[in-house]
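F.,

This is the one I mentioned.
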């Protein structure tokens, strides 16, 4: 199959390209960064530079449509939040298949406030949650919970977490948070337990491939930089409920807390690819994306470990000296996503791609991850050129958010 992978700058975007190529597909790659590492993999048949999805949605989708027509692409596989722009303007893509859900489903899952409401309606386990739309509501919500954590309804990468518990307590000050009706914040009771994540591929509400993982190492206690697969069955039952209800197609990822007292508690959804891709074999990932699974769900077995070597190396400059030997050991002994592929060019371009972003600094906690997400985010607003029905759906979701207590 001829596949176009969009947003090739991320580690999991590069991994998707390699694994789809290894599985026998002809893979093209696209990104608004010419130096996107995945675009320079040996597994890429041809790479393309597009306008920014966030800054020029119609130009971006038009460029993708032209690539598909010129190259005979059969399937588009988005990897990050460009999926919202492609889904909203799906009619402009022609006959090519898009591995993504309807825009309304994506928006409902991405908005943490409406996702919380969906989980409640489905009877799924989720911590007690309050939506704050202004400073007064934020202070009232914080006072409601002895231990809490809060983040924006539209946020990503584990950055800008407001909490009074754990290693991130006090890193973000209450007075620095400015929730609004357009950009509310969620305040949830803090549930003690390890954080877990899942990644799945889905066709027509049926999960085709699935895995659950934990992050033994994190970048400044937020975004994972080392990943280990664990038993996937408990999270699979929760994921099935959601994707069946939405008749979902595409990639989808969830964050959980594994509470000793309550079991798995849903925290949030990313309706896109995440680092779980790094732990899947090429045949499992390929079959999951193309739907060639004969009605079964392929699971990743527990015990696989992979890490982002560049991030582990960067973490060494920030961590206490007594942690450095562990980092050196992990860099020497544990598997990184680049190892074994004999595909060197993406490693060289990774430095160029990150340097493209002026905020990059190993001493700045958010720099690496802001650089990854630059110009491909969607924060809930209307998209230029979208259908009237999707605009109406956005208005409905906003009204639903306002009703969420």
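My design for it:
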């Amino acid at each position: 199959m001829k596949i176009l992978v969009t947003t090739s700058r991320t580690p999991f975007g590069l991994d998707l390209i390699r694994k789809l190529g290894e599985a026998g597909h002809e893979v093209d790659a696209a990104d608004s960064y010419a130096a996107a590492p995945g675009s320079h993999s040996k597994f890429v048949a041809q790479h393309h530079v597009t306008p920014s999805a966030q800054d020029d949605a119609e130009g971006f989708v038009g460029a993708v449509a032209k690539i598909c027509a010129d190259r005979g692409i059969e399937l588009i596989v988005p990897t990050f939040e460009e999926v919202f722009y492609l889904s909203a303007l799906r009619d402009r893509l022609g006959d090519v298949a898009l591995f993504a859900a309807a825009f309304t489903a994506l928006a409902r899952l991405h908005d943490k406030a409406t996702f919380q409401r969906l989980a409640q309606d489905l009877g799924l386990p989720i911590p007690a949650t309050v939506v704050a739309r202004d400073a007064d509501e934020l202070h009232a919500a914080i006072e409601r919970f002895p231990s809490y954590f809060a983040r924006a309804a539209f946020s990503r990468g584990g950055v800008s977490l407001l909490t009074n518990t754990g290693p991130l307590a006090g890193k973000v000050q209450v007075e620095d948070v400015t929730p609004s009706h357009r950009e509310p914040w969620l305040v949830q009771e803090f549930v003690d337990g390890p954080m877990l994540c899942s990644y799945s591929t889905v066709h027509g509400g049926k999960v085709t491939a699935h895995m659950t993982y934990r992050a033994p190492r994190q970048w400044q206690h937020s975004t994972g930089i080392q990943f280990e697969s664990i038993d996937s069955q408990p999270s699979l039952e929760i994921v099935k409920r959601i994707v069946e209800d939405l008749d979902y197609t595409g990639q989808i990822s969830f964050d959980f807390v594994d509470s000793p007292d309550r079991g798995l508690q849903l925290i949030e959804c990313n309706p896109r690819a995440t680092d779980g891709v790094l732990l899947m074999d090429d045949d499992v990932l390929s079959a999951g994306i193309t739907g060639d699974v004969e009605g079964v769900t392929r699971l990743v077995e527990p015990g696989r470990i992979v890490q982002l070597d560049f991030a582990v190396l960067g973490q060494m400059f920030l961590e206490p000296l007594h942690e450095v030997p562990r980092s050196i050991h992990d860099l020497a002994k544990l598997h990184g996503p680049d190892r074994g592929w004999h595909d060197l060019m993406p490693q060289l371009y990774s430095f160029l791609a990150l340097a493209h972003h002026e905020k990059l600094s190993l001493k700045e906690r958010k720099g690496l991850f802001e650089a990854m997400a630059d110009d491909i985010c969607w924060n809930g607003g209307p998209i230029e050129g979208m259908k009237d029905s999707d605009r109406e759906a956005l208005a409905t979701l906003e009204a639903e958010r306002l009703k969420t207590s």
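The longest strand covers residues 206-219.

Talk soon.
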